[in-house]
Design goal:
homodimer, D-Maltodextrin-Binding Protein, domain 2, two-stranded antiparallel sheet, 12 strands, DNA-binding, transcription (chains A, B), WH-like_DNA-bd_sf (chains A, B), DNA binding (chains A, B), LysR_HTH_N (chains A, B)
Chain lengths: 290, 290
DNA sequence: TCCACGACATCAGTATTGCTTATCTCGGTA
DNA sequence: TACCGAGATAAGCAATACTGATGTCGTGGA
């Protein structure tokens, strides 16, 4: 199971086309066809239905493994390369939107002042992209925020070998439009809201599948998908009544009211995540710790 | 980073010899030398010192990644092959020694009676071997036991995609030789025993590194290494005063007394672990659930 | 119903890769 | 200093994995 074959398999599955995958990867269509055939004969199973291209059960199963494997492979490469490269004069900090708040800016500014020769960059993206970036070395340090049970770590994509430490914990709140029947409450249980409409904003708010897991129940249907990473945009949607969202408190946005979740006990947390640190990246990471 | 190269790298690191690794893998020494050279030039780093062969820092880092990657790779293969293979007429159950207790035998016997055409096998080994076996398809179903905090799952090697479910929880006890000053107590805290001598029996009792993590402290020096998987043998060592061990209660062995651990709160737990199940394996798995 | 077109499969040819055998080089040791 | 063991290097050859051309199948339009 050559990683090359795995990569073209993932691409074909993603584009649902051999030709498109070939173009994307810089191969001929013929090569892609042969690679998939090789994979299938190696595993002794049909991975894709043809015309139209669709995953078989076996293919779907393989796809679940392929992503993490490829991620880890490049994490390994990045990890080794980082060790042997010359000390970088640049540090890239990746953060999820709510994690990249005022304190981040203050810390970055002070560290920048302490090390004027180093070039710092702040990149705001989704949770998974931060974790993957840290694993593959695109990012030196990551800040990820999310909602979980007090004793659990934040769920991150499996890239292995990532050190995490808790930076901030505060209350998790559900964001309601002002005037919503629940908006006046002081606290609430998640299960009461299983029938409500939620905004599916996996990169800013709590992803819906995780929400269901936290509440130990189904429901939580999504009325609106928000793939962006802008917090104000999400809150505007909430204010407009497009749906609810589980967020870090306190919420300060006109027309939006945050109500703390008390059942189950939940916290919003910001975690610092990194692999092996270059010296300037280490300074930055230390600066974040209390 | 071809998995083949990774595999020979792991073998070379393990044997600390190019020639021995070549023999073990069925290559010539020349091939191994070229493979390592290819890996090093690909990553742009020296992975091994030569004469004598030893890991560089970069090599050590790569080695940490290589194991999990190779494991996941074969887990992926096994997972796909299992889906497309014909229904097997054989089920292999792997279990750690304390997990494979009386109830296991009873369940196996009754399932065997229900499906006389199917050939069942019970294999007792270490924790990691059970998890790896289930991931790679050598085992259909695994039973793993161990000690953790009540809210945490048992720590298993990262093979991804393994479903686990809790079967039994009971108290965790420290096994003392009769006459030990602590042997008369009704309960105790782990930290009190950080200075005691422990038996390092990673496949039967709680591994020492995990013990340190549970107690949030150092210490726990090992007086004796017990790599076997026989429970009676371990208890005999405890009775002889070779050291202590953290085990599932209750302990019934002449000369050994078990005292429950109450600080931190710990439980001994047996977990069922499996990948995708063949029909007869599913029946077996269901039979274990309460 | 038939044809044309789009999309994947197959085939032949070739460049590359990755092995083996043979030989060389280096470091430790008597 | 000479030898021996162990890894590096070189040349040759077989297997692999591309490209380009052609074949086959399903679909949509006339």
């Amino acid at each position: 199971m050559d990683p090359h074959l795995l990569r073209t398999f993932v691409t074909v599955a993603g584009t649902r086309s051999f030709s498109a995958a070939a173009q994307e990867l810089g191969y001929t269509q013929s090569a892609v066809s042969q690679q998939i055939a090789a994979l299938e004969s190696d595993l002794g199973a049909t991975l894709l239905h043809r015309r139209p291209v669709a995953l078989t059960d076996a293919g779907a199963r393989l796809l679940e493994h392929a992503g993490p494997i490829l991620l880890r492979l490049s994490a390994a490469r990045a990890d080794v390369v980082r060790l042997s490269g010359e000390p970088a004069a640049t540090v890239v900090l990746g953060a999820t939107p709510f994690a990249g708040s005022t304190r981040v800016a203050a810390v970055l500014a002070s560290v920048q002042r302490a090390m004027p020769r180093v070039r710092f960059t702040l990149l705001l993206t989704g949770r998974d992209a931060v974790a993957a970036g840290v694993a593959t070395g695109t990012l030196d340090v990551g800040l990820v925020d999310g909602v979980t049970a007090p004793s659990d770590p934040l769920p991150l994509p499996d890239a292995g070998q990532l050190a995490t430490s808790v930076l901030v914990e505060n209350t998790a709140v559900v964001a309601f439009p002002a005037g919503h029947p629940f908006a006046g409450r002081r606290s609430l249980g998640l299960a009461d809201l299983a029938d409500a409409t939620w905004i599916d904003a996996p990169d800013v708010a709590t992803p819906l599948p995780q929400l269901r897991a936290l509440a130990h129940s189904g429901g939580f249907r999504d009325g609106f998908c928000y793939p962006g990473t802008d917090t104000a945009g999400l809150l505007a949607l909430v204010a407009a009544g497009a749906g609810l969202a589980l967020l870090p408190g306190p919420v300060t946005h006109p027309g939006v009211v945050g109500v703390a979740v008390t059942l189950p006990r939940l916290v919003h947390r910001v975690e610092l995540v990194h692999g092996s640190l270059t010296p300037p990246a280490r300074v930055l990471a230390e600066a974040f710790r209390p």
